[in-house]
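@channel sequence for tomorrow's demo:
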Amino acid sequence: MKFIHLSDLHLGKRVNGFSMIPDQRYILEEIERIIEEEDPEAILIAGDIYDKPIPSVEAMGLFDDLLKKLAAQHRQVCIISGNHDSPERLSFAADLIGPSGIHIAPVYDGTVHPVSLQDGYGTVDIYMLPFIKPAHVRGIFSEEDIDSYTAAVRTAIAHMDIQADRRNILVTHQFVTGAARSESEEIVVGGADNVDASVFDPFEYVALGHIHGPQQVGREGIRYCGTPLKYSFSEAGHRKSVTVLELGKKGDLTIRTRKLHPLRDLRKLRGTYAQLTDKRDYEGTAVDDYIHITLTDEEDVFDAIGKLRVIYPNLMKLEYDNTRTRENQEITGGEEVERKRPLELLADFYTQQNNQPMSEEQKAFAEALIKKIWEEDV
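structure tokens (generated this afternoon):
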């Protein structure tokens, strides 16, 4: 049985002030062609359909067109909400459209009923778990000890009626520990939203959304398909694709990808103003791509962005890298920050501000306060 795995469409997104609607329309048309060529039994869309909880009319129109085409082809489509979506709005009228083959996960209420498909090897059960937070799950299962995202997802899975002799797929939207991140994702500082991959043991394949780079996390079968488009310059080196998976008999899984070709790429250019405006250098290149330019001139160029946009009309970002900017740079330690707990980050900030570390009493007070805020927020 063949499936197409998609996620993080972020329809309606703007990148550095530029609307992605034309690019999204273009890439969805390519995805539609891939679906026709691959002829899968089902399409799995793992959340962040829209970029905002209240999407624009244009964004809704794009998704509506996609679903109408898939329904007309009698495709089975399994859709969940991500952290950018409103689960209430996304699942509106889900019961009415379900018979058409478009299955949208409702707001999580503690129950997940699978979509079951049949082939020569038996039944494949597809479970759809939208983005959840510990507080949401704790409110449903008050008797459970749910103090983390891992505990929340583990509890949700434990209350699914999973039949071990069947082939089981989970479609969900969470940050799994070990996944490589991009700048365009919303991740909790200090890694508090991590989910351990071991919670997914009952499933042959886990169709993940949330992380924008395509990648396997942990064992084979736990996979982020990534976004269909690049949404930040930290993704400039990504190869965007559609994930195709095939299930044979239980335990037999094959995963491959189909490369996507955007209307415009996101690229980084670096050099002096003279180099980047030399016709011999830019002639024949894709100047209509979305561009981030780093100028290395020691002196600022007057109206550089205006002049460069004559050549590069979709110039999104301009910065300088020279003696002055390097002297003014602050060391942020971004990768180290991601690995630290909230209390450690607060302690570092306190030390920088006061030239002395926090006392044990202050740490105890801060830890209790963080825990209280955490319990209210998550």
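heads up for whoever presents: The chain is about 30% helix and 25% strand.
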